[in-house]
Amino acid sequence: xxxxxxxxxxxxxASIPVTNRGLHYGDAxxxxxxxxxxxxxFWEDHYFRLMASMRILRMEIPMNFTLEFLQDAIxxxxxxxxxxxxAFRVKLLVWRGWGGKYTxxxxxxxxxxxxxxxxxxxxxxxETPYEVELFKDHYVNSGLLSTLKTNNRAINVLGSVFAHENxxxxxxxxxxxxxxxxxxxxxxxxxxxxxxxxxxLSDGCLNGILRKQLLSIIAQLPDYxxxxxxxSPFELQKADELFVTNTIVGIQxxxxxxxxxxxxxxxxxxxxKLNAKARxx
Length: 281
Description:
Blueprint: E1 2-4, E2 7-9, H1 21-25, E3 28-36, E4 39-40, H2 43-56, H3 67-79, E5 87-96, E6 109-118, E7 131-140, H4 154-166, E8 170-175, E9 180-183, E10 186-192, E11 195-198, H5 209-219, E12 225-228, E13 241-246, E14 250-254, E15 256-257, E16 260-261, H6 265-280
Parallel strand pairs: 7-8, 7-15, 11-12
Antiparallel strand pairs: 1-2, 1-6, 3-4, 3-5, 5-6, 8-9, 9-10, 10-11, 10-13, 13-14, 15-16
């Protein structure tokens, strides 16, 4: 079951008008949310990021788009699912109403909630090989728009095709200054000794929810020094660990980049603390 503007409808019966600005112009934002045992993990962070993204894109935020309203809409959609799973991936998609072509005359928005059952209620650390490579065919512009979760994902799609064709599990993306900013599906962290680095938002990386959570966790740990600073491609093979973070997987250790292999000691340590925060938060 899907939730289209507050109406629950089966996926086989759902339809969206062809006059859809998300389809035509990529004029849409979305949140990918993990729901565990009926609890929406880090819901306030997701909500406020969505509101900030809509404001930046000058979408009119409806008066009823409160934290409680959207939380209730997600919960009702989950409860209506025929699959009685403990965990779901939920995509909350918001787009601007049609109203015109290149310049919209209407600023009303519509929304769609799409749930998908997943196996793991909380975050587990994968021990399987996970090899990455740099994706250098196209570059991400550094700046505010690149930090938003819009449906303009052409570079990510092309990078995924490149990874699939060449046998990699993921790719790392570069910005227009040739700095490493993130993976195709999440934020990047680099560990070197007791130092943990991640690119700043000003470099163009996604303003990830798990990135925010880990920054908060690491800042409270006396054993690590956290740096939000640019990462050069030359640093990758000197690192002790590399890992990718996103809302659904949590922390995904990278095991190999070119000739360098990596451990996952810090990733394991942080994952336990992340799960504790998800349960208590």
